[in-house]
Amino acid sequence: MTDILAKIKTSVAEKKKTPVVQSDLQKWGLKGIQLRPYQLDGVQWLAQCLNNQQGCILGDEMGLGKTCQTISLLVYMSGALGKEGPFLVLSPLSVMENWRKELECFAPSLTVLCYKGDKDRRAEIQRETNTQDFNVLLTTYELCLKDASFLKRWRWKVLVVDEAHRLKNQNSLLHKTLTEFSVGFRVLLTGTPIQNNLQELYSLLSFIQPSIFTADDVDSFVSSYSKIQNQPALAAELQSVLEPFLLRRVKSEVAVDLPKKTELVVYHGMSALQKKYYKAVLTKDLEAFGNEQGSKTRLLNILMNLRKCVDHPYLFDGVEPEPFEMGEHLVEASGKLFLLDSMLTFLHKGGHRVLLFSQMTRMLDILQDYMEYRGYSYERLDGSVRGEERNLAVKNFSSKDIFVFLLSTKAGGVGMNLTAADTVIFVDSDFNPQNDLQAAARCHRIGQNRPVKVIRLLARDTVEEIMYSRAVSKLQLTNTVIEEGRFSLMDQAQSAAAGLQLSEILKFGIDKLLSSEESSIQDVKLEKILGPSRDNEWVDDEQYTPLMEEEEEEEEDESDVQNHMYFFEGKDYSKDPSSEDQKGFDRLLEEQLVEFQKTAGEGRALRHKTGVSLSVPLGIPTRKRKPLTEAELELRRQRREEAAAKRAKLQEDMKKKQQEQKYKKKMAWWESCGYRSRCLQPVDSEEEEEEEQEDDSSICSTDSDSTDIRYVLGDVTHPHTAQGDAIIVHCVDDSGRWGRGGLFTALEVRSDEPRKQYELAGKMKDLDLGNVLLFPIDDKQSRLGGQDQLALIVAQQRDKANNLSGIFLTALDEGLKKIYAAAKRNKASVHLPRIGHSTRGFNWYGTERLIRKHLASRGIATFIYYHSRTVKKTAAPQTSTSATSTSSPEAHLQNKLTDETEAESPGPSTSTQSPAQLPSFMKGVCVFFYNLAASERKRLARYLVTYPF
Question: Which CATH superfamily is domain 2-251 in?
Fold first, then answer.
């Protein structure tokens, strides 16, 4: 490819040194960071590329500070060159917030605009850009594709693409879209510039320098450099081609002060249930093994199901025994989770903090159930978690004492800084080892001050072992290629992968794995495997040799087989299925056919050409046992109940202890922040017992003096009372985000305190369901005859997807109890809006019962307000004796209004409006039911109690 070299020499000028020093960057606007020498070299290299070519690739290893080097380049451009933007930065959603924070911290002189949110929010941002200037626009790949027409308006001085391996396919929509943007200089950031082959590398090169690396030359480029392993001159030529465009440094070269990272693999056995399903998955579709080319999809399905089986058999529907209750069966069913359980117990005692990665979100679900069962604190991040919740999860793990962070390898494996952890555990491995490297780098990066342990769990003699072994071989070749300047993986890696057919991979380890149907799970000595730790840190002892490695060496000596790998030490990791594995697979086939013929009959088997099926029930293999007597069965049942009760008691005690510790920490946090909770204290048990003694006879009574709720048309924010204190009640959710419209806006007009107190309580985690915030709201308007207070009942929940639940009557019940105590203590009346108004399916009758039960029936003056609406005047209808009127409550309320003065009102309202009150024409009326069934009397009585609603 001498023509490419010629183009480079004519198009790319020789780099002239552009001196960039820390003091100059600080003068131009860099704040809050002292760049390391290699980072200053990187900024200088970026500045040279800026002056000579169209783009470049900063390929430093993960954790070396590519972000801060890029921000320094933007500061250099705005300060030294006077080019203040606009600059466009694309990143994954999970790291967008990190970019914003670092830009605001390191380059406060640059105005940053975050382009994110739903369609309406983005439209609002687009309108703001017409009047608002910015230097840097941050957004994600997905939004860039959705709103490409909007982003194409600008001539971007610099385009930065973080995690740029997203552009490794030059035919992808993102690659094509970004090439249409008007860009002065392109910067690609990736810790894995080479993942698979030369074609992907060429895609990155064609993006940053399309004038040299044209799309039509990709095939000739790949073919020219595909055999550089045997031609040193060709390798040197490729190095010359890449040198102007790619800069890569690794931690071992430049970050010698970074704490040591130790990587090891721990093997585990499988439970009897896992073996049973592993065998069943292999024999379910034996025809797929006959034709490799035509059955590739079916073989891949088998491979995925085998991986699920190795992770946990409960990943298959219908395997978990009923009833679906938490218990030790969750741990005992999987050899992987059994080992992980022991490992987490050891790590928790040692004060370590863990990043736990898995490929499967359903496996994360099982791990989350396990965390709840064991009572471990955790956060979770996967592809289903929204951006705001992602940032909160990362913040919580970094700032709080959270033990485990559950992450999916793809969603949580790029860009994030999680140096609060010192242990990384891969529950299962990615097919692409670069993805696992990216994930481990979340923890082992600049800012980490403790040694890091990276642990990988592998099931011995399964597809998991051989797939990982081949991935490591590929990774070693990649590292060798990068270090020596040889960037092609076509010759060895791909041919090695092609040399072993998928069907042979699936047969790996069958002979040993299925030689016994019993569980192969064993207890292990974790301290000898993982190594010692002291003061919540791993001990960095060069002389220490893990027990697992020693045991493995003993096995090698005894069996003369290829060794298993525990450390990355340049050994040969590849493994092929043995002849014994093939014989074991043949035996499986024979056994399955015999079993199939027994159950289905020879004639049916011949008629059906499916060969095999999963017709045999998959139960846990058990030995034949003598039948138990009734007394023995009863004794076993009692022992199981006692053991279950004991476990439940221990779990309850642990939960109480954790809640107490959590409460103490919260109190200490509040004290350090100077926060005083506005929440009402729970009603004590004695008062609750008294409350229970007031039975339903008082609640269902038709005596209006004891159950009188006064219904009013008007504004609840201006209580209909002249003398005495008043408590206004409003229901809110637990998010801490003040709403818009309706009563939220009306309360803001009345006082500044509601939003202030509610959002403060949200920040301080003081919005549990059933909590009641009570505070005065007389800062803007007040009454001479008493004080107005607002009670915010936390009766709704907002989930991570921002979906709002309905009102929980249990939370409302608890809140009303507290409000009763406060109203009784302050001799205050209570004023509520029509809760749940216009909410479809809302249980108003149950809500009204609660209000009557806790407030009106116990002597608290209670008012329920309907918002006044403009309606057509109609003649007042005659009093109806029908209890089954179908007219709406609002219409009925309007029709029943009269011009008479409400004699029962405590006094005139101070509001500018004069809200009317419902006429009490039913007051004092006695109703008798004659010759009616009890159920009918109850129904009619209910209508009378709630009339006219």
Answer: Tandem AAA-ATPase domain (3.40.50.10810)
